[in-house]
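Q: What would this chain look like folded?
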Amino acid sequence: MNATEWSQSNELSLPAVTLREMLVRMLRIRLFDERASSMKRDHIPGFLHNSIGQEAEIVGACMALRDDDYMTGNHRSHGHPIGKGIGLAPLMAELLGKATGVCRGKGGSMHLAAFAVGSLGESGIVGASMPAAVGAALSARLRGTDQVCLCFFGDGAANCGAFHESLNLAAIWNLPVIFLCENNGYAGCSPQTRTTAVSDIATRASSYDIPGVIADGQNVTDTYHKVAEAVSRARAGEGPTLIEAKTYRYCNHQEEMGDPVYRSATEILFWREKDPIENFTRRLITSGAMTAGQIEAGRLQVLDEVDAAVIFALQSEAPGAAALFEDVFV
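A: My prediction, written as structure tokens:
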């Protein structure tokens, strides 16, 4: 069986309703981030990192979870709560710093959380959410539930101390956490080949005697199946898994900061041809899971959701001065 046949057989093994939901969630991430990027100059304060190009690994991983499972993210994390099922309106309001946002306007783009879908938070500090994911998994163990925590991080974070400490602790305590490395090939503007000795982050799993798995991060069903297997292991008490999703971000690391040219046109074109949404759409049509008309209807539905989210955010009020004294420990 060649790679194309394998991919189609995997997709056909999933219910049509699941495949359609995968496409809709990927479209939500893509169209939400495109709109947010267009609003950055006039409406969104602070930095804005988008996930355009990485939609498949996000949605595939998140849809392998239950609603009550936990998740932690990173600075590039609008897509993660969307992949887990959050509504777009409060998320857009959060980016605009409005009181109706998921964190009442206090988290913004890089530090939002969405407890309604189990998103415990994201952080602009590289690798900072990894110990929190271990803590969430420990909490599930101590409370006697079978919840798991999915921890998203980038290839740059794999060189931080928090990576090694988190994997080591999760391994020796056999905790139900899935570490998912979104390897888009760059830490900021630095290519992985210049910052990391190993070519595959997943090989580091052997240092902690846990499984290390590589997923095609541009293929939503490949990521789904591999994360689902890791989730099953974790629920069964078999401990953590390190999954490396090979993916790519189409935009610069931080466009509004004036990133230098650090990628070749040939490289970008190579990955553009692996567009996770376009390729999945073609496979859905070829397999008969969806028609072109159904796909276009889904895209228009998501566009309406994004439009409604923007209107909601623009019409929402900013937090009042009294909000400065709320949500604090002292």
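Strands lie at 70-72, 149-154, 177-183, 186-187, 190-191, 212-216, 241-246.
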